[in-house]
Amino acid sequence: MLGALIGDLVGSVYEWRNIKSTQFEFLKPECFFTDDSVLTVATASALLTGTGYTEAYQDFARRYPGRGYGGYFSNWIYSDNPQPYNSWGNGSAMRVSPVGFAFNTVDEVLAEAEASAVVTHNHPEGIKGAQATALAVLLARQKTPLEEIRAAITNYCGYDLLRRLDEIRPGYTFDVSCQGSVPEAITAFLESTGFEDAIRKAISIGGDSDTIACITGGIAEAYYGVPNDIAQKAYPYLPREFLDVIEAFYKRYGK
Known about the structure:
Elements: H1 2-11, H2 35-49, H3 53-63, H4 71-77, H5 91-94, H6 97-102, H7 106-118, H8 124-141, H9 146-157, H10 165-168, H11 182-190, H12 195-204, H13 209-224, H14 228-234, H15 240-253
């Protein structure tokens, strides 16, 4: 899950200032964590404590306000009777990576990814985006060959993962939908040669850079691990509470 947070941090400064290149300063001083990190940590906390996803997401979002939450979600955070709002947005995918680390079978991962999504994102595309991301994390953890990961995601989720980044990048624009950002994030991982390279490729697509890189980062961590030097540079950007949850999560579920 740290990989997802690093993707969010690196992409935070490019969300509204896209850079269509892999050549940029990694972890700039002005990088910051966004809602992607808050809710990824909330997912991990829910898995550790047995807290429901609704309670965990409301709790963390209330304690870390102003981090770029979407309009519908911002209202949902403070609702006394929070209900899903049929969202197909990529919020369900950016927060789900801990599920892919915590469960060990395809059926478990797909079911738990859906459970994490439906408290807000109960649209079929919102569920599918979470499932595709969590499944990619699981398969990456298992060191499944990249072409087999591509085939499995296509089979389960129907995404077109045959496009190359060089085809996607020139015309790609801001898209917060799962169907318009999750396939791109997975493709960035599939074309990568290492953890940092995956993050760089994700950001080079443009669009919703922090979220795309967050999704890619979780998958890339599962496959490559997070280099220690990058992890050490990332820690100071994150609240102590986040680091405590990460430590507890790795202790229970491994890296």
